[in-house]
Structure formats: C-alpha cells, structure tokens
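TA notes. Do not distribute before section.
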Amino acid sequence: MTLLQNPRQLFVKALLASGFALVLLAIMTVMADRVSAHGYVESPASRAILCKDGVNTDCGSIIYEPQSLEAPKGFPAAGPADGKIASAGGAFPKLDEQSSTRWSKVALSGGQQTFTWKFTANHATTSFRYFITKANWNPNTPLTRAQFESTPFCTVNYGGAQPPMSYSHTCNVPTDRSGYHVILAVWDIDNTVNAFYNAIDVQLSGTSNGDQTPPTVPGNLNVTNVTATSAAVSWSASTDNVGVAGYRIFNGATQIGSTTGALSYNLSSLSANTTYNITVRAYDAAGNVSGASSIVSFTTSNISGPDTIAPTAPGGLHVMGSATQNSVPLMWSASTDNVGVTGYQIFRGTTLVTTVSGSSLEYLVTGLSANTTYTFTVRAIDAAGNVSAASNAITVTTPSAPTTYPAWSSTQVYFGGNKVTYNGVNYEAKWWTLGNIPGTPAGDVWKVIP
C-alpha cells in the first residue's frame, strides 16, 4: 500500500534537509579555516600535543591539529575569554575541562628550562610570552586570567622576524611554588591581530637548587645516511642522579634540534656540499646540562648533474586576517626542495600576480575590485627553474563597496524617499524637507539607511 504525504509534511522534510545541509556547510567551512594551523609547544609537552600523542585522552578533535589554538592576541587584557583559555576561544572545548586530575603533567623544576616550539607555518613573530598560575590558584575550576600572574615570567622578543620551523629558547621558571600549575605559552604573531595559546600542565618541584648534578656526557655519537640535504644522528644514553629529560643537538655552538628522550634525530634542510660539526648534550628536569659529546663532522654530498627535481607544493594556503575591498592577505606553509626553494609564485586564477623570495611565506595581493570573487594558488620554484605543483586553491570574495548617494544640499528641496549622503552617513527623507540637516534634532525628517 502506498502512503501519501500531505504538502505540509513534504515542506517540513525539505526544510529539515536544507537545514542539515547548511549546518554541514558551516562545519566544512570551519574545518577548512582550521587548516590555517601554525604551531605548538613541543617541549615541555603542551596539553594539546599530549592529546595528539595519546597521553591525554578524550580530547576531541584537537588530536588532529594541535597547532590550531589561535585567538586574538593581547593576553591578559585581551585574548580568549575566561573559561576558554586552554582552547584559545572555545573551538576545542574539551581542552577547557579543568580539574586537578584531568590532564597528564610534565615534571618540571624551577629555574632555567628550555621551551621548544614546533611550527607548521613560521609566521613573522613579535614575541613568545609565558604566564604561570598563581601560588594559590584553584585547579578544580575553569581557567581564568585571574588565576594567572598578570605579568609573564618570561618574554622572548623576536622583532618581527620568522623563526625556524623548530625553535628553542630558555626561560627561568619561578622557583617559589610547587605542585600542579599551568603555564600558558603565548606566541604573538607580528603582522596580524592573532596569537597562539598553549596550556602546559606541569608538576613543579620548586627550586632547582636541590639538583645541581648534570647528566653524564652522551657517548658513541654517530652520523649515517648523509645526503645533500639530510643526515641521521644517533648516540648512546646518558645517566643522571634523578633522570635524563632529553638531549640537544648542536652544529658548532648553534642548537639545531632536541629530543625528549629519543637517542636519535633526523637532520633535514641541510645545505649541499657543506661541512657540519655535530655534538649532543643531555639535560635533566632541573635544567642541568651535560658536557658536549665528542664531535662528529660530516660533509653533505654535492648534487651532480642538472637539478630536475621540483620543490614540493606549498601547503596550507589561507587568508591571514581579513580581505578588504581591494586586497587579500595570503599565507602558506614552506615547500621543500632537494637543493633549495628560491621563490614562490602567487597566481590569481591562471594569472601570475608576482614572485616573492623563498624565505617569504606571505603576500598581500592588492589592486582587486570590491564584491568580486577571486581564486588564488601558490607554486614554489628553485634556482634551476623547476616549478612545484600548485598549492591548495582558496576562493575569496572581497567585501562590497559602501553605497553612496548625492551629497545633501541645504538649498535642495527633498521629497519622501529621496536619499542623500551627509558626513559619510546615508539618509532617506521621510517627507518633504528643505534645509533640515540630517543627523540633527532639527533633521528628524531624515532616517539613517542601515
């Protein structure tokens, strides 16, 4: 038997279906926007990266993108709202669940500690700042700015430059408190209104003066699999009176990598036909650092023959900030190449807009028209002229230009429905008028056009 549905039932079903489609579209839009993901604190491990690594559980979608904790900058005066600080504004609400037992904690001592950021897009940077919860904070209530010290215990100014894809620096963690605390790491982007926020759950043991014994020197340093741009480094474990927290890898006096316990490290983005002098040092939770291992030197291979290998496609192309009526700010993640990326080509549709240097990961496209849809892609190039595949394409519609009408005149007779512009505001006459100034008590004949 066939069941007949009345028109009202059909209408309701259609409405529900269209509503679901709109919700799905909104979700897809949000997820696409999250591709503009950029960096996280790798060590001491942040709440988000411990979620990705499976140490923290029941974390929600942050496990797929721990680098996405982006919100307006200006903390503590501005930034994410109270109760949404750990999630950088609420996009990942699971991170805002707060209790003394909810999150795994990193053992840390007061005193000098190394903080390492891992970037997927290394934006021009103003500074890195670190805040810590007050001595009497309540770990069983949602995180609020009132629970943090108002002044960062460490600020590393970066002057608008771009850090490397992995960047480490030292800070003196306060020695006047112990037990469970939260460190809020803030990465302030230089040329946008946004920053990145990472909550780090730590178990503090107070002053580091109690442990002043450094680990033993790492041994048996070895380098293998040397190519023109990479090499593998390995060593044997150090020992410590309390415990080894990790290892730092140096080229000469410059730190070029670190691990949190692993006894090997893959060096990448090296220069061809270049000599490197590698050493490794161990460190413990109190910040004590061992002596340097023996030096192992190696020279990357020289690339023979013509370079026919194109760079990889740029990733994560997105609008960084907001489009205006005639401009769109673009940003993308770096490409890699067997020799080196020398530039990036920015395309509007199939038209080459410009080429920027290989160290630039952003560009402001100008000269656009209002209320117009544009599609952009980026390609990487190397010195041999090899061109990568296109990045992901993004489509942007510039905002509409504001509507303007003839300027109001004190000698013009206006009738109901006539429209004018006065002092940058648009008005419509309600009835006949002459000489009544819009926007004044005497000009109540005029109504503002939204």
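Switch to the second chain here.
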Amino acid sequence: MLEAFAHLLTSSAFFVMAAGVLVGIAVGILPGITTGMMMALVLPFTYGMSSTDAVVLLIGIYVGGVSGGLVTATLMRMPGEPNAIMTCLDGYPLAKAGHPGRALGLGNAGSIVGGAISWVALVLIAQPLSRVAIVFGPWEQFALVCAALVMIVSLSGKSLLKGLIAAMLGMLLAMPGIDPSSGLQRLTFGAGWLTAGLDILPVMIGMFALSQIIADTLHLETNQAVIRSSMRGILISLHDYVRHGRNMLRSSLIGIGIGILPGVGASVSSIVAYTTAKKVSKEPEKFGKGSEEAIVAAESANNATTGGTLIPVLTLGIPGGLADAVLLSALILHNLQPGPMLYVRSPEIVNTILATHLVAHVMMFSLMTVGVLLFARLMTISRAWIFPAVLVICVVSTFALNNRPADIWVMLAFGVVGYALEYVKAPLAPLLIGFLLAPLAEAQLRTGLMASGGDFLAIFDRPIAVAFLLVGIAMLAWPPVAAAIRRHRQEQPLAGS
C-alpha cells in the first residue's frame, strides 16, 4: 500500500490522476454527459498506458464525476449526475436564499468525509472477502453470477420484466462467436467479423454514449437560470464538521452498504440517506427548503458509494453499475482477471486502486474548494458544441479498437437500440452487466458440468451455491410480493369503510 501511495506521488501518475479528477468533475457538471459515459470514451486511450496508470485515470474520473454533479444541482437545480437529484432539493433553495458558497461547501465536506469512510471500509472488507471468495468452486461462481444478475434486475428499475428482458438480451449478445467448449462458430450468421464475438467497447459506447447524444439532441432543454457562485462560505469550519458528524457517519455507512449491493448505486443510497436524515432530524420541516442536513446526507452517501461499489468488483469480479462495469472492462482489456485471484496475481493493481480512491477524493476536495468559480462557468457551454466533439470521439475510439469499419456500425446500431430501450423506460445497466457476466456464467457452468459428469443436480450438494440461488430467487420474487402487499394494504381501508 505504501508503494502504491509513493507511485501516486510520481510526476506521471500524479498528472494522470489529476487529469482524471478534473475530467470527472467537468463531466459531472456538464449536462448530458455521465461519468460512466466518459469512462467508456476514455477506455481506448488507456491501451497505451500501463495497467496501474489506466486504473488511476479511471478511478480519478469516477471520483470526480460523482462529486461534480453537486455544482449544477446547487446552482441550476439540474443534476449533472443522476445521483445528485437529492442534492437539488435543498442545495438550490439554500443557494437561492443567498448562500451558494455555504451550500457548495457543505456538499464538498460531505463528499470528502463519505469518500474517506468508504476507503476505510474498502481496505478492511475487500481483502478478507476475497480470501473467502477464493475457495469458491465453479458451482459457487455460477450461482453467485446468477444471484448478482437477478439482484441487478430486481433493483434496477420499476419494471421487473423490462429489467429481466434487458439482462437476458445482454446475455444473448454475448453468445455470438466461437463456442468455448466445442470450438465451433455459433450465431455468426455467416459474418466473418462476428467470429470473435461482439467487442465490449462498441456495444458500451453505443448503448451509453451515442444513445445519450441521440436522446439529448431530440430533447434539448431550454436554458435555466444560473445562480452566481461565490467563494463565501465554501470553507466549512471544524464546528460544522462536529455538528454534522453523526449525519456524515450515518449517511456514509448507508452509502457503503447500498454500494456493495450489485445494481443499486449512488442514486438509491442518496435517497435512503436523505429520507433517513429527515426521519431523525429535529427540523424535518426544513427538508426541501434548504436544509443543511439534507445536503450533507445526500453528498456523504454519494461519495461513500464509490468505495462500496468497488468491493464486489475487486473481490468477486461483479460490477455494481455502469462505471464499475467500465472499470471491470479496463482490467480485462489489460489482461487482468477481476475477482479474488486479482489479490494473488496482481496485488500492485489492487493497492493502486485503493490508494487512488483515497488520494483522488483529497484532490477532488481541493479542486472543488479552490476552483468552484471556474467549474461553474462550464455550465454555460451549449450542448450544441459538446455533442459533435463527443460523437467524433465515439467514432474514433470505436474504430481504433480493431481498425475495422464493422465496429462503427455496431456502435451506431447499439446507439439506436440504447435510445429505444430508454424510450420504453427499460434500464440499460442490466443489459451491459448481462453482456459482461454471461461468458463467466457459461464458463463456470460448463466446468461444473464436466466435473460432475453432466449432472446439473450436483449444484445442490454445494451449500454456498444453494444459498446464492435462494438469494436470487428471493430477490426475483420480492417485487411482485411487495406490490401485492401494498395493494392489500390499500384495499383494507376501503373494505373497512
């Protein structure tokens, strides 16, 4: 770990991390561009980097992007990132009341505290969990992937069916290519370029970057009034940290716990932390009207989620959301196998991720404190200038992968597919995660079947695998059961009257 911190202090690594945090903050502020989208666009540029510098850059973007949404949420009442929605409710009213610096300062303070606490949890929990996961056999790995997919589907949106269809579509898209067992081509339809299967990069850029450009181009929003930012109140006193300390700790723990769950993410953690803070607050009537407690709770949970989501990526090789899926893809592209063996084969990568997570939060806090006036100017840039540049990057990045035009057509096709799925309110994250995890699930299933002589029932001889399957079944059954319970409760008063 000390070597990893020392590496971050070298000129090249420090510059890469600073660039990543700056880009992440800018992306969090600019409307129409998400952190996961920018990480996907940057991914091709990491090919020429070392593995350590690649993860430093991506973690920097991740941390900066989660925090950057605070600025637009506070000064424009428009979340630059989905996880900043709850910050809008109180950050904008407090800024509108004449305290924009105070609102930004409280959010910035919550961000650094949440990030620091989540780093402690990441260091303490990840390695012991990897030691447990390393003894998993193929049946346990298969059951774990199934449970993760079901959990992502059941918690990713209002419609369980749409999420399930998206995940299964993602798994289907991973099937074309060479069958890993027989060596025969499957689902290539005579297309030679499909022999190697669909590459993750064109699919990812099309689904998330290009689809977002299409959606925002068709629905350009009118300019909103921007509150002038001010440095006054941006620095929070020690008394404020003490006064809001319990709220920061509670919200950070909520963010860590929810971040560990696959497919949930910072948006849900900020909502849970916000509502929890309101329930225990002595002044709940101020929530939604400029409450300092609300801003601290939302931003602490947002940044604490970054550490929580990295735990399943490092220990189990399972991404919790889009940004984690991009990081997982980066590790695979650099010939690193995410999961418990990463600690054994590439401990320097794990330590680099852990060190970067903490140092990037410190850098984010410093940059947000001294550069808030400069960052606020980014909100005035029209998306009519941003989108053409992003589109060019999409095409160049996709073509540079294999130097073949077919990848560009794949990207364009999935851009349309992504827009269509979002138009019908189908979640995109389950599709991408299904695409990433399907090969792993297939490989583990076939390994288990070969070891058991083709007997699938052998999985029931493995208690841990059975436990994971039961968790998956419970998560799949819970949404309709919960809906039935709500309907029953609503009908009871009517029956009584």
